[in-house]
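Researcher: Quick test of sequence recovery. Tokens follow.
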């Protein structure tokens, strides 16, 4: 009788360990899926930032063109190009 009871307790213990292990696998799979979803969101956000960075680089290039800067200096700031003989060159 005690052998049967001992076997039943051992079997119940093994079943509990198996159930705990199965729940652990389920939980870790769930966590990995959550992380995968987060990685996907971060990659989409990175793509958006890269597109925005490219647009800003293009805008910067456009705004920094020499003729545009010169035009704004003339029109808005009323600056004029000095005569050649009034230009002083400094050597470093």
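Model:
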């Amino acid at each position: 009788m005690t052998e049967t009871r001992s076997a039943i307790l051992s079997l119940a213990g093994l079943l509990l360990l198996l159930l705990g292990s199965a729940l652990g696998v389920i939980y870790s799979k769930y966590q990995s899926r959550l992380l995968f979803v987060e990685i996907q969101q971060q990659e989409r956000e990175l793509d958006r930032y890269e597109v925005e960075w490219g647009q800003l680089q293009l805008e910067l290039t456009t705004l920094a063109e020499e003729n545009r800067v010169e035009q704004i200096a003339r029109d808005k700031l009323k600056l004029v190009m000095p005569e050649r003989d009034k230009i002083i060159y400094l050597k470093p």
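Residues 2-63 form the longest helix (62 residues).
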